[in-house]
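Ticket #4471: structure export looks truncated?
Reporter: QA, pipeline team
Priority: medium

Steps to reproduce: submit the single chain below to the structure queue and open the exported record.
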Amino acid sequence: MSTPLDHEWETTSRHRTSDGVVSYQRCRCGAWRIRLRPARTGGPRTLAPAERG
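Actual output as written to the record:
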């Protein structure tokens, strides 16, 4: 039985858009994810799920 991988996310770049701030993050395992911090309400959310590379 395997256990979930604990990712250690590092932001590689961040860009302001009309929807909010988009951050591109990578883990040392090779996985990537994209996060959006909306400009108006709510907290950050993941736009693209982490995948093992």
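Status: closed, not a bug. The export was complete when the record was re-opened. Leaving a note from the reviewer for reference: The CA atoms of residues 31 and 52 lie 5 Å apart.
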